């Protein structure tokens, strides 16, 4: 069906966006924690 096809096409972009988001979020979190380490050590 057309709906299934569009869902199948939107799924890879969704997972890719999720991947990018989590990677970016982890990177930001790591930056923040290292910043806190510098401040409070």
Automatic annotation (TrEMBL):
Protein name per its UniProtKB record: UV opsin
């Amino acid at each position: 069906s057309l709906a299934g096809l569009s869902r199948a096409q939107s799924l890879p972009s969704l997972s890719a966006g999720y991947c990018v988001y989590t990677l970016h979020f982890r990177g930001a979190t790591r930056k923040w924690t290292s910043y806190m380490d510098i401040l409070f050590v």
